[in-house]
Amino acid sequence: MEGISRAVTFYDINCQYNKHFRARVDASQFLEMTQDLTIIPGIGLWHVHGHQDSCYVRYASNFIDGIGQIDGEIMETLWARLNLISPAARAMSSPHRQECLDYQMNDSNFCKMIRMKRTLCRKYKLAMNGITESGKAFDRLDEAAPAHLKTEWSARERRAQSSRLNDPEAMDEYEINIKKAPSRKEIELRLLEEGSARNAAPSRRSVATWISTGLAIEEAQIALLIEVRRMGKRSTETQRLDIARQRDRLQGQMDGFTQSALTHLGEGFDADDDPDDLNVDILDDLNDDPADFSKTSDAWTNSPELTVIPLPSNLGVDRCRHCMAEDLIPLEMSLREGQANDTLHNLRIHLCNKAVLFRTAVRQAKSQALKTRAWSQVTSVQQAVSLHASIYTKTRKQMMKLEPGQDQLQKFKPLLREQLKISTAVGDPNARGQRNESLAWFWSVEVDLGGPDQSWNEEFYRVHWLRAKALRDRWKEEMTLVQLEMDWTCHYFSWRATQWGDRMRESLEKRLPGHACYSGRQSQMYSLLAQDAQAAFQDLQSVSIETGDE
């Protein structure tokens, strides 16, 4: 490690492993590491998505300066090579298996070496294309951003990168930093802690989790309802199979929830109850025929997405009092508030993403292919908007059944279809002709920002700008690294040719013709590899320069 002052390590759980890594090395009698060596921890892209959301910007290679485009997965990339011999290796003895694996990996390494020219040429072309595409995306964002904001964002980016070693949370600059209202999980945790503190009865200890599970089931019902509606009656066999599997899984969850209801509500909670089907107002831009939806839903007997589950809001206040479960009403009301806060927060996020897509992708598309790609992204975001809007509408309807207070009525207002459209006030706050436009009420529900008209759009634009800049910088670094790898490859082949040439001369002096012939052949092979690689790299770079000049 002499002469190396900076190293990047990738490990599946580096977010935890790196915390005490240097202390473990210092305490070991077999390991040593210079104090001047700076180690930047990273997590491979294949594993980081299985971590907490915060680990992505803190440890993903996309946000580490100087490493180019790298996935951070090393050992996993070799498994495909070993899969070729794995069936035969199962029946081998341990020594035979070890020799077979060594031979396979040596052959893999040799193939990588002789194909290095082709690999680097492909990486060079990918880097050129990545620089072009990421540069265009960043330029579109950069041109629309005010100069004073770009200066501020750049300064915050530099502070985050310089502080990431001592404080990984500094990298949260690449995330949306918005303080939102209490979520359903936070409220559930508070209710469970309060229940434990007052030594609640056994039938009431896990009631908050039980109600929260019911809310999650309702959300799954709404998502399945929307998917069935979009599918319509002209569906494929694969689509119908997927819906059937989702219904079967949902029915299992509902059966478990209903069984638990006996503990919290008693055996007579549904003695004379004949509830109607689940009623959900789906807010979207679809122009489907309602008859198609009803026919598709009737195809499954007792569709679980239409079944009403025994929540206090579905039973009603009077029935809860009759079942001696009146104390469940304020618990569900609290969790419903958290659910409404979650859905409104997600709704704001997706609407802002939609506004940014319109501003940077749809309006800037110059070809039919780019327009199609941009509109497909908008459609995906719009589906998420429809889901969260429908969940909020259902949540508010259930809250009305629980006799809410005046403060809750003022805070959680009805959500109208026209409020889900992207107005100029979100997409471009400084555009003309919008002095009489204002954002919908849900943009300012318990959000810790100076003003909803500017702050939400500015916060989302900042994140898009920073991430687009990071992507462009990584591709530029990748191009630099590929060019260096080209030089290293040519130098390595030339060095190996010289090394084998010296061995050939030593063998001739010692009168070892066999050794001399083998050394000469190796020297010639590496010499040809060096010449071939150098010619290919020069041709590729000259073509790229000519293309750039045009």
Describe what you observe in this structure:
The chain has 550 residues and is an all-alpha fold. It is 65% helix and 2% strand. It has 21 helices and 2 strands. The chain has helices spanning 14-17, 21-27, 45-48, 54-59, 79-82, 86-89, 94-114, 116-144, 147-163, 184-197, 207-231, 237-265, 290-298, 312-315, 317-322, 328-362, 368-400, 406-411, 424-427, 452-509, 513-549, and strands spanning 6-10, 38-42. It has a two-stranded parallel ribbon with strand order 1-2. The protein is elongated and about 105 Å long. Mean pLDDT is 82; it is low at 285-299, 424-438 and 447-454.
Report the helical percentage: 55-70%
The coarse overall form would be elongated
Major beta sheet summary:
2 strands, parallel
The pLDDT mean sits at: 82
Structural class: mainly alpha
The oligomerization state is single chain
Please tally the helical runs, counting DSSP H or I stretches of 4 or more residues: 21
Please tell me how large the radius of gyration is.
Answer: 31 Å
Content of β-strand: under 5%
Helices and strands, in order, run as EHHEHHHHHHHHHHHHHHHHHHH
Strand order of the largest sheet: 1-2
Stretches where pLDDT is under 50 for at least 5 consecutive residues are 285-299, 424-438, 447-454
* Number of DSSP strand runs: 2
From the N-terminal CA to the C-terminal CA, the straight-line distance is 44 Å
Secondary structure blueprint with pairings:
Layout: E1 6-10, H1 14-17, H2 21-27, E2 38-42, H3 45-48, H4 54-59, H5 79-82, H6 86-89, H7 94-114, H8 116-144, H9 147-163, H10 184-197, H11 207-231, H12 237-265, H13 290-298, H14 312-315, H15 317-322, H16 328-362, H17 368-400, H18 406-411, H19 424-427, H20 452-509, H21 513-549
Parallel strand pairs: 1-2
Helix pairs in contact: 8-20, 8-21, 10-11, 10-16, 11-12, 11-13, 11-16, 16-17, 16-20, 20-21
